[in-house]
């Protein structure tokens, strides 16, 4: 498996609430992992609500720390979680003011991508909980705005959304077309096994790497990414999969003959290259 650059497409590191970048990267590497794609955590997780530039700066710093101190290659993804907008509205901002604040934050994310400091915009999207119809419409407008920024910067977008199946994948693919963004540049984070193009409408699904989801996904196609959505938050143990899961799951599937080495290479190398332009 050494020639396969095993990549966790969505893994967080958090020295405030968890073990932090070096320890997580070391665990990942020990189990065979080589690359981590790390989105910034939301601003409330480090106690400075709405300090979006700091949230992004911090993930750039963690990526640097991993790259200088471990054998893992790390890449940053920068953006504003959809709950940031909900929280702005709860704090008393009106829709217009909140929209401007969020768009400014996304402009900054685009700038970091264009400077080569981050590989994608994310996680952005819309809430997995219920919100007012006005907020829902604004969340959708902001998704299209982020896609337009990504088109300009020629980068990918990592999408956080409500539980999605064919209907939502189709909706997001239409939004991408509206923004002029190629649909495969749109990565559905925390995806179920929607690996058939007829189900995902050309989006790139990033499968939550449970045994169940990966086994259903690989039966249909090898066009997907793998992730844990590890939070590195000790107050929420078991909320998601651990940092060793993607390398271990890949090895397990190869050993059991459920995935060929070629499939694994496609998932961890070709697909990553196609979406982010990252070479091995
Ligand atoms: Zn996440």
Tell me the number of strands. Answer: 8
List segments where confidence is low: pLDDT < 50 over at least 5 consecutive residues: none
Share of helical residues: 40-55%
What best-fitting shape do the alpha-carbon axes yield? globular
CATH top level is: Alpha Beta
Strand content: 5-15%
Question: Counting H and I runs of at least 4 residues, what is the number of helices?
Answer: 10
Structural class: alpha/beta
Structural Rg: 18 Å
Question: Architecture, CATH level 2?
Answer: Alpha-Beta Barrel
- Helices and strands, in N-to-C order? EHEHEHHEHEHEHEHEHH
The tally of domains stands at 1
Mean pLDDT, rounded to whole units? 97
- The CATH topology is given as TIM Barrel
Relevant CATH superfamily = Metal-dependent hydrolases
List ligands, each type once: zinc ion
For the biggest β-sheet, the strand order reads 1-2-3-4-5-6-7-8
First and last CA, distance: 14 Å
Largest sheet: 8 strands, parallel
